[in-house]
Structure formats: structure tokens, C-alpha cells
Design a protein that fits this description.
Strand content: 5-15%
Order of helices and strands: EEEH
Strand order of the largest sheet: 1-2-3
Number of strands: 3
Largest sheet: 3 strands, antiparallel
Helix content: under 10%
Structural class: mainly beta
């Protein structure tokens, strides 16, 4: 049953988000992407991919360094 499958999002060090599981991906204009069922997708996190929202490995060419942890807001906590 497709509804029972788990979606997993893995943050890759200085790279894309790897998304595995049944997902629907819709762009800012409301267009839905056709995704291969059962395959993981890598979503761009550096902002420089020419195949956005998908990763094209540009992050490694530009030396992208991600903040791997959320930063607490000033005054929070």
C-alpha cells in the first residue's frame, strides 16, 4: 500500500537533500514533476544547480558549504 510507505529525507554533507519514498513534487508555479516510482531523488540545496529543483552536483564545483544544523534565534530558548 503506497500510503503506508515511509518517506525519508537525508541531509548530505555540503550536498543535496536525498528524498526516498512516495512523494509529490510541485514547483512554485504549481506544476507537478513526474518522478520515477521507487527511486530516490536528490534536491538542490546550494541554489546553483541548472536542473533545479534537482541536484546536478554543481555544489561540489562551487565549494558549497552548508550549515548542517539549525541556528537558534537570538533570544530563543
Amino acid at each position: 500500500n503506497r500510503c503506508m510507505e515511509q518517506v525519508v529525507i537525508k541531509v548530505r554533507n555540503n550536498g543535496p537533500y536525498k528524498v526516498t519514498g512516495p512523494i509529490t513534487l510541485i514547483d512554485a508555479d504549481g506544476n507537478e514533476y513526474e518522478l520515477p516510482e521507487g527511486e530516490a531523488v536528490a534536491l538542490c540545496r546550494c541554489g546553483a544547480s541548472t536542473t533545479k529543483p534537482f541536484c546536478d552536483k554543481t555544489h561540489s564545483k562551487i565549494g558549497f558549504e552548508a550549515a548542517e544544523r539549525a541556528v537558534r534565534e537570538a533570544g530563543a530558548g
